[in-house]
């Protein structure tokens, strides 16, 4: 039995009517990639403040996500999750925003539908 607040891990819940059209492409502790029909869904959980080598982890995860996005470039892509971009110097927030805008504008104009939500 778990006690306290568990940590780590990500998931994507799929409606049972879509299961026959769903493929789990990749799954690890910090992100999961699932393909449903012509959509690539990526759910992430980036490290929180206080994690050692946080920027290095961000760089590696973003690079991995880009690799999966490139590999399935024929699919529409949704990237969502907890980016944990809170830091006093805004270094991580700016780093992730720059990466996201670079990814958006590398797409063809007909594919450029994106929402980058600010920290709430």
Describe the structure.
The protein is of the alpha+beta class and 120 residues long. It has one domain: Aminopeptidase (3-Layer(aba) Sandwich), CATH 3.40.630. It contains 2 helices and 4 strands. A 4-stranded mixed β-sheet has the order 1-2-3-4, covered by helices on one side. The radius of gyration is 15 Å and the shape is globular.
Features:
4 strands; 4-stranded mixed beta sheet; alpha+beta; single chain; disordered C terminus; Aminopeptidase; globular; 120 residues
Strand fraction: 15-25%
* Quaternary organisation of the protein chains: single chain
Radius of gyration, in angstroms, nearest whole number: 15 Å
Reading off the top of the CATH hierarchy, the class is best stated as Alpha Beta
Q: What is the total number of structural domains?
A: 1
Q: Which structural class matches the secondary elements?
A: alpha+beta
The major sheet is characterized as: 4 strands, mixed
Number of strands: 4
* CATH third-level topology: Aminopeptidase
Backbone shape: globular
Secondary structure tally, helices: 2
Order of H and E elements: EEEHEH
CA distance, first residue to last residue: 33 Å
As laid out across the biggest beta sheet, the strand order is: 1-2-3-4
Mean pLDDT: 76
Q: Could you name the ranges where pLDDT drops below 50 across 5 or more consecutive residues? A: 107-120
Helical residue percent?
Answer: 25-40%
Assign the CATH architecture.
3-Layer(aba) Sandwich
């Amino acid at each position: 039995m778990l006690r306290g607040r568990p940590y780590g891990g990500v998931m994507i819940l799929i409606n049972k009517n879509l299961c026959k059209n769903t493929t789990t492409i990749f799954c690890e502790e910090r992100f999961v990639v699932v393909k449903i029909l012509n959509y690539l869904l990526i759910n992430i959980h980036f490290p929180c403040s206080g994690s050692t080598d946080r920027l290095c982890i961000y760089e590696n995860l973003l690079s991995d996500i880009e690799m999966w996005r490139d590999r399935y470039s024929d699919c529409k892509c949704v990237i969502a999750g907890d980016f944990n971009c809170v830091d006093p110097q805004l270094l991580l927030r700016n780093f992730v925003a720059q990466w996201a805008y670079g990814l958006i504008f590398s797409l063809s104009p007909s594919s450029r539908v994106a929402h980058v939500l600010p920290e709430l």
